[in-house]
Design a protein that fits this description.
The complex is a heterodimer of chains A (about 550) and B (about 240). With about 550 residues, chain A is of the alpha/beta class. Chain A contains 16 helices and 26 strands. In chain A, a hairpin with a 5-residue loop joins strand 13 and strand 14. Chain B has about 240 residues and is of the alpha+beta class. Chain B has three domains: about 70 residues, Ubiquitin-like (UB roll) (Roll), CATH 3.10.20.740; about 90 residues, Fumarate Reductase Iron-sulfur Protein, Chain B, domain 2 (Orthogonal Bundle); about 35 residues, no CATH class. Chain B is built from eleven helices and five strands, in the order αββαβββααααααααα. The longest helix of chain B has 16 residues. The structure holds flavin-adenine dinucleotide, iron/sulfur cluster (2 copies) and FE2/S2 (inorganic) cluster.
Chain lengths: ~550, ~240
């Protein structure tokens, strides 16, 4: 296969079409879809609307909810540890506030609990891998906040609720949009470098489904810049944290409230018991479950552990029927299939094109609509491009950005995208990027209220693990916002709880025993275990060998 | 001695790589990270985002017949025939504890917490090893000269992988120094836009409360109507 500047010769023919049509397309605006048209493309092409990929949850509080098979799989799975093997009399860490999951939501919660008067030694932050291995650090495009005179939190509210198909919890949306400017101010005071124009005002871009430009960004490293600053503060404030120590089960008390968690050291394989008065779950999303067989943009540890643990303890979930597929994951080269090509590429003007170099849809529809339009083009027409490994995709015309905004715009604003493709010899200032939807975001999760209380006493939640803020579909930039808004609120709520006098109660794992009973009654064909902790990517040959060894040992 | 190949292995183009000393035949199209998994390693350290953003997967390698040591992010680099690989655990480099609110964007702020910056030998080993191709030495030098704005901008794409720090003969934790420079720059060298401050004040004064009450009382159909009719100010629409 002959390669020319990163692309196989075959694909070059189609790239020529893209280059030829560019000057004609520069001012061409393609109409966006009406609500009815949106419904049509979603019904026919979005994986959420295909019953093949889903089934009903068979036990527990949300029994009967229709969710992706992969989500049902981890809920219909046995605990990875026998509850009788855990000695709850031996308490390894005794704190007031335990925060599980150190992404953006977890670190904001820890900082705000501390700012609100909880001494650092009363806080413990635990996380699965290294501090910084999370979805937050990978966020690229930006964070929404309505801070311009032509904009307002009310307009932001309408955009968010329409994007979520009007199924969002109104009080949560209000909290999200009304706290947003405060969050940007907090970040600015911490020294987060948001992109500014010469005159010192913020650069604000559009996003899919936004009616005003309100996307604040730090090049296409927005999450990195935000997270490393929060992490720097966690260390400056000397808030204790444990790495490589995922929680694998919550601990309840005699009244069913949450009173702690069991941690598992993934290297020494030891269990540790933490007792706490308030537990904040901030474990993020589920990309690594590969819903509907899709590749994912998510980090290695995004396996929905928090939802599983909370569900066993009886927490109510919501909106897990809706999964977010990001319209533009990389479809070529093979090494990076599924990794994100930020929506900011489209915010800056890149159009979405078929094989012939013509636009296939309005580039800034809400995510689910945009993704469905791309799937439609690849599944129901022949206007797609095929890679040497038979993957289908469509073009994202990045060079158009430089035509519209001037030479140098890509290096300045999309340096991560430029670098990623350039590592594989593709120059995105000269050639378009081949894309196809990728599994991106857990729209639903643990139900909470505006102060981050869940349906269980003692348990708070914040961030991607939660459900209700985004309804059935999140807009770009509302998630980085959510983790700060609700992380902060969770920290403040936990600090209020800290000030109240009450006791934790007696530690039990009764809920785990109860879950096992419910699972037994299901008589599952495959015996699965969860939380997943890390996905399995070893080759089939290796796995078969491991199974053989295991069977021989029996 | 060579092991017999499965049918699947015969059909895919493979390369031979060495992981921590042992030879493995892996598909040529894989990244270093996926090749290690293919070879049977379950990665626990040395992987995070798997996309080039978190710096957890710093890897050193040599190539057959080449004296040089190469460095890369394992999740962003394709395997090559003859690669001899080792994964690096994260090398500890102490981060100073400071309160940005009490500092100024000057060289002395940096030197106060990282006095070793003054020992930079200008050897450029850090820039050569950086998988993000950042001119690391230059941002260290800018810090020393008090050009905090330049240091902040030049170090901006750092994923904190730590490779520079382990190559530095002066034992400078460059990525921590860059972090401090960026925070000082972000906080002090650019002002907070007035419009943001005004909006925060409006929110605190409850300016939008009535509007929220009204929106939150709308039925779904009412909301839908409002949504379809909303105006777009900044974007061109057909
Ligand atoms: C590639 C990419 C780009 C994105 N771009 C944007 C964007 O431009 N704008 C935007 O608004 N949003 C964006 N998002 C979404 C946004 O980044 C995430 O939704 C958000 O950061 C989630 O934050 P979180 O704190 O809830 O979870 P995370 O940041 O994922 O943190 C969760 C943490 O919990 C840990 N954890 C998991 N399980 C356990 C356990 N059992 N025990 C202990 N710890 C555990 C994880 O390891 C992780 O460290 C993007 C997401 C991705 C993946
Ligand atoms: S500056 Fe240092 S820590 Fe940052 S990416 Fe480059 S080598 Fe890694
Ligand atoms: S490696 Fe150390 S001594 Fe050499 S240029 Fe970089 S910072 Fe200076
Ligand atoms: S795993 Fe995060 S940079 Fe490679």
């Amino acid at each position: 296969m002959k390669m020319i500047r990163g692309y196989p010769e075959d694909m070059r023919k189609s790239i020529d079409n893209v280059n030829k049509t560019r000057s004609k397309r520069i001012d061409q605006i393609i109409e966006d879809l009406s609500l009815e048209e949106r419904k049509d493309v979603l019904d026919n092409f979005h994986p959420d609307y295909n019953p093949k990929y889903k089934r009903d949850i068979s036990w527990g509080v949300n029994k009967g909810d229709n969710v992706p098979n992969e989500v049902a799989d981890v809920i219909e799975a046995y605990p990875m540890v026998n509850p009788n093997d855990i000695d709850l009399n031996q308490i390894d860490y005794d704190v007031n506030i335990l925060i599980i999951g150190a992404g953006g939501a977890g670190t904001s919660a820890a900082l705000w609990a501390n700012y609100s008067g909880v001494p650092k030694d009363e806080i413990l932050l635990v996380t699965k891998l290294r501090l910084g291995d999370c979805n937050t650090v990978m966020a690229q495009g930006g964070i929404q906040a309505a801070d311009r005179p032509v904009d307002s939190p009310l307009i932001h509210y309408m955009d968010a609720i329409g994007g979520g198909h009007f199924e969002n919890k109104p009080k949560l949306v209000k909290a999200l949009v009304n706290d947003a400017p405060k969050i940007i101010k907090w970040h600015k005071d911490l020294g987060v470098m948001y992109d500014c124009t010469e005159d010192g005002s913020f650069i604000e871009n559009p996003g899919g489904g936004t009616s005003r430009n309100r996307m604040h960004c730090s090049k296409d490293y927005t999450g990195l810049e935000m997270f490393r600053t929060l992490k720097d503060e966690i260390i400056n404030k000397e808030i204790p944290y444990l790495e490589f120590s995922p929680a694998i089960e919550l601990i309840t008390n005699e009244t069913g409230g949450i009173a702690g968690a069991v941690l598992y050291n993934i290297e020494t394989k030891q269990y540790f018991v933490v007792r706490a008065k308030t537990i904040i779950l901030t474990t993020g999303g589920f990309g690594r479950l590969h819903v509907a067989g899709f590749p994912t943009s998510n980090h290695y540890g995004a396996t929905m552990d928090g939802v599983v643990m909370a569900y066993r303890a009886g927490a109510k979930l919501r909106d897990l029927d809706a999964t977010q597929f990001h319209p533009t994951g990389a479809a070529f080269p093979e090494q990076i299939v599924g990794l994100l090509i930020t929506e900011k590429t489209r915010s800056l003007g890149a159009q979405v094109l078929g094989r012939n170099g013509e636009q296939i849809c309005y580039p800034l529809e809400p995510r689910d609509v945009e993704a469905s339009s791309i799937i439609k083009c690849c599944a129901a027409t022949d206007n797609y491009i095929e890679t040497p490994t038979q993957m289908r995709g469509i073009w994202l015309d990045s060079p158009l950005i430089e035509e519209i905004k001037g030479k140098g715009t890509i290096l300045k604003n999309l340096s991560a995208m430029y670098r990623m493709m350039n590592r594989f010899d593709i120059d995105i200032t000269e050639d378009p990027i081949l894309v196809y939807p990728t599994l991106h975001y857990q729209n639903g999760g643990v139900e909470l209220d505006e102060n981050c209380y869940t349906s269980l006493k003692g348990l708070l939640a914040a961030g991607e693990i939660s459900g209700g803020v985004h309804g059935k579909n999140r807009l770009m930039g509302n998630s980085l916002l959510e983790i700060n808004v609700f992380g902060r609120r969770a920290g403040i709520t936990a600090a209020n709880e800290y000030k109240k006098k009450s006791t934790v109660g007696k530690l039990t794992l009764a809920h785990v025993h109860k879950s096992i009973k419910s699972l037994d009654a299901l008589k599952l064909k495959d015996k699965r275990y969860s939380p997943t902790i890390l996905p399995e990517y070893r080759s089939d040959i290796v796995r078969d060998r491991l199974v053989q060894l295991y069977e021989q040992s029996l | 001695m060579s092991k017999t190949k499965t049918k699947q292995e015969e059909e895919t183009l493979t390369v031979k790589i060495y992981i921590m000393g042992s030879a493995h035949e892996v598909p040529a199209s894989l990244t270093i990270m996926k090749a290690m998994e293919y070879a049977g390693f379950k990665i626990k350290r040395g992987a995070g985002c798997r996309a080039g953003f978190c710096g957890a997967c710093a890897t050193l390698y040599r190539k057959a017949g080449d004296y040089r040591i190469y460095a890369a992010l394992a999740c962003q680099t394709q395997v090559e025939d003859g690669m001899v690989l080792t994964q690096l655990p994260f090398v500890p480099a102490p981060k100073a504890i400071y309160d940005v609110d009490s500092l100024k964007p000057t060289a002395s702020s940096i030197l106060k917490f990282y006095p070793e910056v003054a020992r930079c030998l200008s050897c450029n080993a850090c820039s050569k090893v950086c998988p993000q191709e950042i001119q690391v030495m230059d941002y260290v030098q800018y810090c020393l000269q008090g050009q905090i704005d330049k240091a902040a901008e030049l170090s901006f794409d750092c994923v904190q992988c730590g490779l520079c720090a382990i190559r530095c003969p002066a034992e400078i934790p460059q990525y921590h120094v860059g972090m401090l420079a960026r925070r000082l720059h972000g906080k002090y060298n650019t002002s907070t836009p007035e419009t943001l401050l005004e909006r925060v004040e409006e929110i605190e004064n409850g300016t939008f409360e009535e509007g929220f009450e009204e929106l939150m009382s709308l039925s779904k159909d009412g909301l839908k109507k409002r949504y379809t009719e909303r105006d777009f100010v900044d974007q061109k629409k057909a």
